[in-house]
Amino acid sequence: MYHIGIDLGGTNIAAAIVTEEGKMICKDSIPTLREREHTEILKDMAQLCLRLMKEEGLKEKDIYSIGIGSPGTADPEKGILLYANNLKFHNVCMRKELQKYISVPVYLENDANCAALGESISGAAKSYKDSVTITLGTGVGGGIIVDGQIVSGSFHGGGELGHHVIKMDGDRCSCGRLGCWEVYASATALIRDARIAAAKNPKSLLLRLVDGDIQKMNAKIPFDAAQQGDKIAQEVINQYIHYLAVGIVNIINVLQPEVIVVGGGVSAQGENLLVPLRKEVERQIYGSDKIKTKIVAAELGNDAGIIGAAMLSKIYG
Amino acid sequence: MYHIGIDLGGTNIAAAIVTEEGKMICKDSIPTLREREHTEILKDMAQLCLRLMKEEGLKEKDIYSIGIGSPGTADPEKGILLYANNLKFHNVCMRKELQKYISVPVYLENDANCAALGESISGAAKSYKDSVTITLGTGVGGGIIVDGQIVSGSFHGGGELGHHVIKMDGDRCSCGRLGCWEVYASATALIRDARIAAAKNPKSLLLRLVDGDIQKMNAKIPFDAAQQGDKIAQEVINQYIHYLAVGIVNIINVLQPEVIVVGGGVSAQGENLLVPLRKEVERQIYGSDKIKTKIVAAELGNDAGIIGAAMLSKIYG
Prior knowledge:
Largest sheet of chain A: 5 strands, mixed
Largest interface: A-B, 49 and 49 residues
Radius of gyration of chain A: 20 Å
Helix content of chain A: 25-40%
Distance between the termini of chain A: 14 Å
Order of helices and strands of chain A: EEEHEEEEHEHEEEHHHHHEHEHH
Structural class of chain A: alpha/beta
Oligomer: homodimer
Strand order of the largest sheet of chain A: 3-2-1-4-8
């Protein structure tokens, strides 16, 4: 038996056929064209699934479940996407719509929670019962797993770790609050801070590596410059790691998972990021206790969400 | 059948006999004399239990369990108090020690988690599966209940909501971190800020209500002065409610419980505190969504910890 995982994004819809163990056997994607009616988008999602099944020679009876990871707030029990701002979906019963085309059980969850579940079942957190996965990308996404289950609160809107304030009355976040973790610890924040530092320090390697054009800055360049000994870049990285550690220590003090999985673009730095991060977390940790929570890099990359979506039947089925 | 709950504090040990439904039928306390050996303290705890049983005409066979709420980090499965700074207990098997004197099952949990469980089973959160109880006292205590179970992390040290940083690089907390919620939202913080404001504003009602002696300040006086129209006191209260709301909105964004129970000394203000607090939380909440999490006052007062301790067998038995 196989599962299908779908990652419904604002730009693309990706789907994959996944084994019982969480191994992906094929994957494809189509553009979301998000301005369309939800019925059209869901029809395309179904057709993408059917195409993948056909390519693999699979019938409906071979598919145990379809899981959808979606932005916004999802009600997993009812299979309803309550609200997804960038898709303009509002109270859409994804299960019912998809089952018009394919007669298999359909499950739905928030995409960050799917990524956390994916890492928990077959990624970096697979030998742990309790984990938190954070994604350092455009924003800071979060998913909480306790005892193998997704913890998303009573109204399915929890797990928003990026939107916990670490700097009261700080800079404005896209969510409207002041000083959210996301404002300081996302890839976007790192790029912004690197641009500011490069502009202020025209002789820095930071500026040379973008050929004098700060618009070319990405999340990798400050790490590269810092490793090559650029003091300005090192300051940017140290400050970024400080921001990141404040939120991670908050997670440890409140949830104390066995492992925190760091994903998203910035996590491509691997141990370049994690070695100083663990050191800074150790420095900030509550009391004199040694830190017991492990901090590791995500293993599934962009596929975490699809694999987690495919595995939703394991927790909701 | 009855349960016994014990609240092991730094100053006093309180114990009570509690019904299956979480109703206290008798209670007494003795001084902890915390400098003593743990064996002596545990002997006193046992004798307090035996005395209460005798007074109520109960035998060992009438007692289903004894639960202990303790400061510090407890391992509920093993009944071991791993670490409690202000008691100097280190890896003490409370279960084994207590069972030297009374042959009934013994359970152990952190005291803030016991208070959360007490409110969850027979207090302000009793009709809810998911709740968070915060205690605004000397510090800010926290206990997380998800699906009726205490969430305290993989190493029993989670739930430390008072020690999540809301003001990065802010004032030093007793735990060593900078800018913990507790530094701004505890009763201690309110008293400190009221003292500063009173000292700066000699004509304020705030100073008159303490007869010009800021050492007499308590957590009630700024509320009293604010209600009587004192502008300085109103500023202190507004600022305090702002601090409190930042942490509460963080809890909502991360855990989104059905209800947040506010306990501890400051919660004696009831709706005087909660009406402006709910308004400020509504203002700060993520996105444009209406807040769904209820914010209510604790119902069990100082007994929450004892009642929760008595009920530990319901979740660990």
